[in-house]
Amino acid sequence: MPLLFETRLISISITRDQQEVYDFVANPANLPRWASGLGTSIKNADGKWIANTQNGPIEIRFAPRNDLGVLDHYVTLPTGAVIYVPLRVIPNGSGSELTLTLFRQPDMTDQKFQEDAEWVLRDLTRLKDLLE
What we know:
- A hairpin with a 5-residue loop joins strand 5 and strand 6.
- The chain has a single domain, classed as Alpha-D-Glucose-1,6-Bisphosphate, Chain A, domain 4 (2-Layer Sandwich).
- The protein is about 25% helix and about 35% strand.
- By secondary structure, it is α+β, with helices and mostly antiparallel strands.
C-alpha cells in the first residue's frame, strides 16, 4: 500500500485578476516580500534560485510559466530533503483564489503541522495585503 501524507488546503481570496496574481507570485524575486517561510533573500546563482533561511541556504525550483495558474515549487533543504509545494491561482469572480497544499512531513508532530499551516496562512495573508 502506498504511503500517503496528511494534507491541508490553505486558501485565500485576493481581489486582483488571476493573471496579475500569477505574474507576481511566479517571479521568484518577489518571494522575500511575502513568503517568510522561504527566507529573507533570494538570488539566481548559475540558473538556480537560492534563498537564505535561518537554517542555511535552500534551493527552490519553480514550475515553468504556464497558462493554467500552476505555481508549484520544490524546496531543497540544507539536509538535502526535498519538499513539494503545490500552489495554484484560479479565477474567483473578478478576483482570484490562491490555494497551497501543505503536506505533513514524516515525523512531524501535530503541533508542528499546525504551526506550519498557520505560517502559510500568514504568508498568504501578507501576499493578499501586498496585492490589494
